Amino acid sequence: MQRLRSLAALALIGATACSSHGGAAVTPPTAPVGGGVTTSGTQAKLTVIVPQAGTTTSSTSVRRPQYVSPSSTNLVVAVNGGTPTTYGLTPQSPGCVVQVGNVTCTFGVVAPAGQDALALTLTDGTGKVLSQNVVTATIAAGAATPVAVTLAGVPTSVAVVPGAGARIDGTSAPYHFPGLFAQPVEVEPLDADGNVIIGPGAPTITNVAVTTGSAYAGVTSAKTTDPAAYVLRPVDGTAGGQTVTVSATVQGVPLSDGTTSAPVTGTTNYTFTPALMTASGAFITVYSIETQNPVAQFKACPGLCTLTIVDDATTDGKGGIYLLYHQIAGLQVASTLSVYPPGATAPSYALGSAAGVNGATGITVDKNGTIYVANATSGFFPHRTASSIEEFAPGATTATTKITGTPAQPGGIAVDPQGNVYVADKTGAVDVYAPGGTTPSETLSDPSLGSPSRLALDASGGLYVNDATNDDIAYFAAGQTALTSTLSDGSFGITPGAPIMIDPSGNLWYSLTGNNVIERLSASALPNSVSFLPQFNAGGAMGWIP
Hints:
With 546 residues, the chain is mostly beta strands. 0% of the residues lie in helices and 46% in strands. It is elongated, with a radius of gyration of 33 Å. It starts with a strand and ends with a strand.
């Protein structure tokens, strides 16, 4: 939608003038009726600056200060309740000139000496009232007295639109907000011509709230100097796919007849849409699934993040992000697991070697938020640590369960809804640990399985295995220990440790390491054949944000 922005004020002699550029010029209306330019005698001197009409994007991109609505074509003045006089506000009107694209008009309004009440109304070319007010001024005898007044923009509607810097998809409501990040929104009172009323004389904004879907999101003041600025914040992944309604009310303003206009309430819908989290190098980047546009990017570790390598990353059902990386300092290699709440760009806590994260190669999270870390055998005597699986309850910094005797070089880890843990053994098998078990309950293997690394489970419980040795992806059906099928294509280009993921639609994603490209295989052909979907222009370890 295209919006004209205006500042609800009348620029008069004695007041500071301000202008705006850009957009199409104001269309000249019909010739004004009545008033002209008085050059002598007792009068109130008014200078009106009508800004050049400009447009913005669907979001409130730039707040350009503008005196009076760009649609203003007439000024109607009634002195002390007398007969109104109309003054034209177009380039062709007497007393008006074009300066820097704006129309500047100067009028002398005949008024008796002493204290006078000036009722002022701005209208467009069809007579719609855009702003009004009554000002009391003391007029000097025999002179032109400059009079300053702020007109009140008369609201006829109100919208809650994406604010400056909002990362949105779409140009009209319902706006799409991907990634569960808090986004700026702005309350925009609109005049009869759809111009946004801001600045002095703008109506008071009240009752900004999420009126439908408050269980999924909330809206609060941005706490800036801009009273129209607010923040829409989803609660967590439960907001994914939900549409919420944000409403706002603007109060009435004083009119030239001494009354007050009626309050106006409006609503705008927002939908929270999915995003893809990727982690590569020292950065996490979140992309909109809908447009592939980046939504957020932030560092994987504090400080400079030198010699930092991401080992694995995943997300949970609420949109939380889990990042495993290691840093190299001389002969020391330190692993860290950072946990990011939904919509956050900084971790709420981190787990390191003190918590048992040593030489970690893979992480996964179950439906309850329990974190599983696959540690490889690492270090040198006498500080060598054995391979293990560490389990951390949600928010815990000490492992609740530790499984030893696991593969010395695990390639990846996954957990199904029943709590069975799958650990890839790079020597050619996948070990399965039953809930609470400390030894494998079964092993998935096949003579053709070369060096299994990353794992992904589908909704049926079937397991996909990245087998870079054979440049293919192996599949084990739920409950089967023997290979069910192998997905292969001459263009796969799978590398050791390349991340794989199943999205909520059952499509299989795998990252082409180093190429910043993610391939997608359609669920319609899986698990027995390959049908490519359009590529996603990103790379690295990945996770789905609902």
